[in-house]
Amino acid sequence: MQWQELIVGIHLRIAQELERVLDGLTVEDLNQQPRPDCNSIGWLAWHLTRSQDRAIEELAGQEQVWTRYRWYSVFNRPPDPTDTGYGHSPEDVAAFRAPDGKTLFEYHMLVLEETKRYLSTVLSETDLEREFENPAIPRAPTVYARILGVINDNLQHVGQAAYVRGLLKGKGWSDR
């Protein structure tokens, strides 16, 4: 196994978990916050996908899926490529409206395809140590650190979304 396959496999597992969390939820479920100052499942799914889209496309030097395919209009958001949810206030989170689970997952899968392409065909082992400065993310100064940060954030956010689903639907939603 090549190291790229391991990283792609982690992203595939995140997508599988996200699909499981979103499965069967209504738009109301997706947008329900367990408390007024908490993230909804829809916001968490959108945010983890937006963050991955931004990070991978910045590393690849490509336009984000968000703007390239006008996904911002599907989500009724501005075309701002920096709008990933990072720094959203509780009011911003409450105002966010996810369209539906299928749409959230379709956007995620397009971003996943770009991620797989970058990791499998563009990124080399020597690229991992390349410096990558982004003032918005000072703790990720290399390509390696940025990819690790995306994985870490996505694992946390898909877990948070699963937890929120458990709060809303009860323990029985998961087959685990």
How would you describe this protein?
The protein has 176 residues and is an all-alpha fold. 61% of the residues lie in helices and 0% in strands. It has a single domain (3-173), classed as dinb family like domain (Four Helix Bundle (Hemerythrin (Met), subunit A), Up-down Bundle), CATH 1.20.120. The chain has helices at 3-22, 27-31, 41-60, 65-68, 71-74, 90-95, 101-122, 143-169. The longest helix is centred in the C-terminal third of the chain and has 27 residues, at 143-169. It is globular and about 45 Å long. The chain starts with a helix and ends in a 7-residue tail after the last helix. The mean pLDDT is 92.
Which descriptors apply to this entry?
single chain, 176 residues, mainly alpha, Four Helix Bundle (Hemerythrin (Met), subunit A), 8 helices, 0% strand, globular
Present the secondary structure layout:
Elements lengths: L2 H20 L4 H5 L9 H20 L4 H4 L2 H4 L15 H6 L5 H22 L20 H27 L7
Radius of gyration: 16 Å
Mean pLDDT: 92
Question: Per the principal axes of the C-alpha atoms, what is the gross shape?
Answer: globular
Counted up, domains total: 1
The number of helical segments is: 8
Helix content: 55-70%
Number of strands: 0
N-to-C series of helices and strands:
HHHHHHHH
For the record, give the distance between the C-alpha atoms at the N and C termini, rounded to a whole number: 29 Å
Q: Regarding CATH, which class?
A: Mainly Alpha
Category by helix and strand content? mainly alpha
Poorly predicted sequence stretches spanning 5 or more consecutive residues: none
Q: Any idea what the CATH architecture is?
A: Up-down Bundle
Describe the largest sheet.
Answer: none
User: What percentage of amino acids are in beta strands?
Assistant: under 5%
CATH topology name:
Four Helix Bundle (Hemerythrin (Met), subunit A)
